[in-house]
Amino acid sequence: MNMSNSLNRRTVLAVVTIVIVIIASLTVIFILQPQNQSELDIVLTVNVGDSSTNYTLDDLTSLPSVTGNTGFVKTGTYPPVIVSPSNWTGIPLVHLLSLDDNLPMNYSLQIVSSDGYITYFTMAEVQGSIEAYNSSTAEPIGPRNFTMVLAYMQNGEPLTNETGGPLRLVLFPDGDYLSAGHSWPKFVREITVIDETEPWHLELKGVNSWNMTHDVYYSLGSCPHHRKNITLNDIPYAGVALWTIISSMDGGDDTHYTFNNSLVSTNYTVTVWSGTGSHLNFTSYDIAFNNNLILAGWADEMILVPPEWPLKLVTTGGIFLDNIVRIEMSGWQL
């Protein structure tokens, strides 16, 4: 009897041990596997107010789509370069936004890409009024009508990470003209409806004179290569170094905001003007490649609001100027 009981106990212990090992193994497998398989399939999140909607690629491709041929203009090069058209398929962005019953009457959009790039559009731009360029010369021709499309196919093939996918914003023109490439963000991952922002431009007068529009600035300032940060009075400001802005008006052979070194020795003056009439002067030596002097468009990761809006000059030395609307170069010689 004792031997029999001992064998029974050993058998029970062996069975219990096997069960524990099996449970432990299943637990490890469960932990290592994704808790929600659908989370891996989500390619887009749309935020409107307090609600968020996630979309898989299958969700998006089941929605009404449009197809068209178009290219764009690379405006960050001199001279501008026209990129040949491709055939694109995707969803009109206005339709996608309309699926949310909470969409406000007035709004702007913040579009975040998976590489951290952020693009902003006003409601008028979302609805199609966007700066256009001649399809032959790439010269700006003023606002024209476009359809903003969230594309998932190019030339009949799904967009991949190598081609800017799985989602890319594309602008279909209503006529024979093109849009700027900075309005075509790749790797679109999140769309957020934000409070309406007024369109604005920064007047630039130098060797070259032009108006930098809000979309160009926000595109430049959200580029990780150009985005600079300074904390002033415990508030983190983000924007673009002043020398980068000057590089777009100093007459250099711009490949992408390339500073004109040949003019620095003339010790020209840069005057930064506020909409209030106040101004600050800097020399070319002060600003050349100086990342401690920025034109900020964000505070605490939020777009500036009045009285700082649209841009604020911020320095690490504590100097600042709100409501920047114009920058002038003077005293330069060619």
- In the CATH hierarchy, the architecture of the largest domain is Alpha-Beta Complex
At the fourth level of CATH, the homologous superfamily of the largest domain is Oxidoreductase, molybdopterin-binding domain
Radius of gyration: 27 Å
Q: Average the pLDDT over all residues and give the rounded result.
A: 87
Low-confidence stretches: 26-35
What's the shape?
globular
Strand content: 35-45%
CATH topology term of the largest domain:
Sulfite Oxidase, Chain A, domain 2
How helix-rich are the residues, as a percent range? Answer: 10-25%
- Give the class-level CATH name of the largest domain: Alpha Beta
Overall structural domain count: 3
Helix-and-strand structural type: alpha+beta
Number of helical runs? 8
Distance between the termini: 111 Å
Question: Sheet with the most strands?
Answer: 6 strands, antiparallel
- How many β-strands, per DSSP? 23
Q: Can you tell me about this structure?
A:
By secondary structure, the protein is of the alpha+beta class. The protein folds into three domains: about 1-35; about 40-195, Oxidoreductase, molybdopterin-binding domain (Sulfite Oxidase, Chain A, domain 2, Alpha-Beta Complex); about 200-330, Alpha-Beta Complex (Sulfite Oxidase, Chain A, domain 2), CATH 3.90.420. The protein has helices at about 1-30, 35-40, 55-60, 95-100, 125, 215-220, 240-245, 285, and strands spanning about 40-50, 50-55, 65-75, 80-90, 110-115, 120, 130-135, 140-155, 155-160, 170-175, 175-180, 190-195, 200-205, 210-215, 225-230, 235-240, 270-275, 280-285, 295-300, 300-305, 310-315, 320, 325-330. The strands form four sheets. Strands 15, 16, 19, 20, 21 and 22 form a six-stranded antiparallel sheet that branches. A hairpin with a 2-residue loop joins strand 1 and strand 2.
